[in-house]
Amino acid sequence: MSLIAKIPIKLNVNGHDYVVEVRPHWTLNHVLRNEMGLKGTKQSCGTGECGACTVVFNGKAVCSCIFPVMKADCGKIVTIEGLSSGGKLHPLQEAFVEHGAFQCGFCTPGVIMKAKAFLDGNPAPTELDVKEALVGNICRCTGLVKPIKAVLAAAEKMSKKE
Question: pTM of the full predicted structure?
Answer without folding.
Answer: 0.94
